[in-house]
Amino acid sequence: MFDTSLTVIGRLVNAPVLRRVGDAQVANFRLASNSRRRTPDGTWEQGNSLFLNVSCWGNLGIGVAASLAKGDAVVVTGFVYTSEYDDRDGNRRSSLEMRAHAVGPDLAYYVVKVGRVVDNEQPDAEVYQDERLSDAAAVDLLDEPEPLPV
After folding, report:
1. Long-range contacts of 143-148 (CB under 8 A, 24+ apart)
2. Cβ–Cβ under 8 Å, residues 74 and 105
3. What share of the chain has pLDDT > 90, as a percent?
4. Coiled coil located at which positions (predicted)?
5. Which of 4, 93, 128, 147 is 20 to 30 Å apart from 86, CA to CA?
6. Architecture label for domain 4-107
């Protein structure tokens, strides 16, 4: 079978939803990637948008659900495929979907402290919450870089 691997930089349209499918866990979210360019007068002009439904299986799904929220900037790598379905009116439609094999925060926007998963146990989010930098401290560290087109 031929799989098309792709890396997409974008933002979560919704919070990841973690659910159990048989013996496995999967987190699903929608990803938006928007292009834009700077015009000669210095303003930003919006370009095309790409929307993907992303599924993250196993430990990746657990980590995504515990770490990310709606609006977060991420880098996602995975296999892309087209899913076809019939809508309510009976029209044949298709959507672009990705089965992710790696998801991470876009470090152009964040300073992140990494917490390791031990023995397939989910890390305690409250432990890491206390060690997070405040938004103001993170911005000071980043020295307010110009945002990349997302």
Report:
1. 145/108, 147/108, 147/109, 148/9, 148/106, 148/108
2. yes
3. 51
4. none
5. 4
6. Beta Barrel (2.40)
